[in-house]
UniProtKB/TrEMBL annotation:
Top-level division of the source organism's lineage: Bacteria
Protein name: Uncharacterized protein
Amino acid sequence: MHYPIPGNLQEMTALNEHPINEELVAAAIAGVIQISRSQGQTLEDVRQMVLAEDDLLDTSTRKWLSEIVGQAWDNLS
């Protein structure tokens, strides 16, 4: 199944209706990048959000995700 890259918060939220798999996660990451760019945010802004403390991900997972977001940011340029 191919997921469209979300272009707004409503489309991003709609991803919750699907089972989680690699393709869905990739679409979500691409959507975050697309939405962030449309709002004038930088890669560093997005990385800071990913690295912020939360109850969902541990520190090592947030660091790993930050690296993935950086790679995706570069590839989607």
